[in-house]
Description:
The chain is α+β, with helices and mostly antiparallel strands. It has helices spanning 2-9, 33-46, 82-85, 91-106; strands at 11-12, 17-18, 113-123, 126-136.
Amino acid sequence: MxxxxxxxxxxxxxxxxYGLISYMxxxxxxxxxxxxxxxxxxxxxxYAPEYLPVKPIKYASKAKNAQEAHExxxxxxxxxxxxxxxxxxxxxxxxxxxxxxxxxIVCQMNPAILDTTSIDIQINDALFMLLTSxxxx
Length: 137
């Protein structure tokens, strides 16, 4: 939480301090319309079209006593990719920010389609297994 607090309060990104994540003491799964627009625009501009769902994905909390006064934890700007600000963050800050950024992006992408092929070859007492997977959006 100390590391998250520093990301929330602000990090100097080369002369100016910016809060990099939204309020982190929440268990909400809701994202603001502004955040959804930012996330979807980033996906549309940086990934293949098939990654972007037709409409925003909305989630419902499963917790009975969820504290949802704040929106879900997310980057304040999707254009601040982890790699673009890595030089301004310490290792712990980078790892946490990268996880938050990645989870935010994928929560608004179409699910992956996985095609798996498995081949078992037995020669005498030896069993050889080959597993291949192909991912696509």
